[in-house]
Each structure stands twice: as structure tokens, then as C-alpha cells.
Write the C-alpha cells for this entry.
Amino acid sequence: MQGSDTGQTRTLDGAGLRVGIVRARFNDAVTRKLEEACVAELQALGVEPKHITRIDVPGALEIALALKMMADGEDYDALVALGCVIRGETYHFELVCNESGAAVTRVGLDHQIPIANAILTVENETQAWSRAEEKGRDAARVAIEMANLLEDL
């Protein structure tokens, strides 16, 4: 885009936007905190509660399929992925982190819909709790900013 200022922060105006949230129940207490912070921030940015749809899935690997089904319906301006994967003793952590992240990205690209990925990938529960509220709010802001950007493009 010629003449555009790519360093400029967009206005975060969620008025009239419809946002879908998919939350993994695995590490439920942490993902509930993510969701509470995300929803509160969406509403603070002007998204009406009736325009926020929330869906729960078992874990991070199931998030992308639910996002895809929501994107297929074309009822949303932006989507949010919320989850928490805490490192364990096996390779499963890497598998879940890498595959869930790639799948969420693929859904966004395939459907040309912004998806804020707030699937926490942390070493321990302490790290998860220290990030949950901030990353939930961040996800809301990313979803609104990107929905506005796509509208402008």
C-alpha cells in the first residue's frame, strides 16, 4: 500500500463486530481466566455481548476444527483461540504446540479471517498464571485491530 504508515497503531473500535472465541478446557482454570479477560476487553472495545460467541473444546488440538467450522459460516469478523499447554516430560508438548499453532494459522489464511492465537505454551503453571490475564486482553485487541484492518483493505 503506497503511502501507508505501517507503524501506525489502528483505532481499536469493536462496535458492530462479531467475534467467535474457541477455548480449550484442558488446564481449565487458566483458560477460563484467558476467556474472562478476553471477553471483558472485547466489551470494553465496543463489542456487544450478543455478538460474542463462545465455544469450548477438549484441548488445544481441537481448537482449529472449531475455528474452521465458525469460519465456514462466515458469521464472524474475527476469531480468538484460547488454550494453555504446559510442558510435561514427553515430546507431546512440542507436538501439541506446533500442530495447534500451525492449524490455527492455516484456518485464518484459508478463510481470510483474522484469528488471535492466545494458546499459551509455557514451561510451568506459574508462567501460565502470570500470562493468562494479559494474553486474554491482548487476544481481544489483536482480533479487533485485525478485523478493522481487513475491513480497510
